[in-house]
Amino acid sequence: MRGARAALAFLTRLPAGPLDSADFARAPGWFGAVGLGIGALSAGVWFLASWLWGPVLGALAAVTAGLLLTGALHEDGLADTFDGLGSGRPAERALEIMRDSRIGSFGALALGVVLAARVMALAALGPWAPAALIAGQGLSRGGMGAMLQNGPYVRLSGAGTGMTGPQPLAPPLGAALAGGALLLWTAGWGLLSALAGLALAQLAIRAWARRRLGGITGDVLGAAQVLGDLGLLLGLLAWR
């Protein structure tokens, strides 16, 4: 379970005890399971806030809770990715832009649009929102782990360094089945459109990064999680 604890420490701000590099090397296989937990906590906030204030503020509260729990780790990656890839500069310069802690116009626009779309989609999903929160957070992080395994990872150092080795199959498979079963139980064959939205979003950002940079970075992985989650929500909403 040290790999699970390392995934928890990597993806959230929750304490996970002392860990070493070998533990973090096993973390990607547990990304999906940790994502399910993040989604479950966000869904709990959705239930309470929606009961108190209605679906729009419930959606906003759930998204905010997720940002606080993760320290906006992936959203930061989304902004950096769009600043770098959207700059039109050569790969080396784009990577330098992505390292810059300051946010540029492309990153700010991407972050604002994606967060607004996520809140609006959750509000529109109504009673499907809790299942979408749990499955979206879990499956998008499982996809992020799969991207990390398939690479190529282009930085010599960074968030994904040391995590590109082989992973156990059971944890990611179990998390994927749990997220898929939850969507199937809630939305029936809407599961298919939800998975299509997630896959298209993550494949698109991976293809863009590989064309512009020759591979992926930790920031690209973060962008893939955020966009994959939004793709799942929009795919599910299209079915509904």
Describe the structure in your own words.
The chain is an all-alpha fold and 240 residues long. Helix content is 76%, strand content 0%. The protein is built from eleven helices and no strands. Helix 4 (55-70) crosses helix 7 (105-125), helix 8 runs antiparallel to helix 9 (170-187) and helix 8 packs antiparallel against helix 11. It is globular. The model has no long low-confidence stretch (mean pLDDT 92).
> Which descriptor suits the 3D outline?
globular
- The number of E-state strands comes to 0
The computed structural class is: mainly alpha
Beta fraction = under 5%
Q: What is the distance, rounded to the nearest whole angstrom, between the alpha carbons of the first and last residues? A: 38 Å
| H-E order | HHHHHHHHHHH
Question: Helix segment count?
Answer: 11
Instruction: Write down the Rg.
Output: 17 Å
- Low-pLDDT parts are none
* Main sheet properties: none
Mean pLDDT: 92
What proportion of the residues is helical, as a percent range?
Answer: over 70%
Main attributes of the structure:
240 residues; 76% helix; 11 helices; mainly alpha
List the helices and strands and how they pair.
Blueprint: H1 2-11, H2 21-25, H3 31-53, H4 55-70, H5 73-85, H6 91-99, H7 105-125, H8 129-150, H9 170-187, H10 190-213, H11 218-239
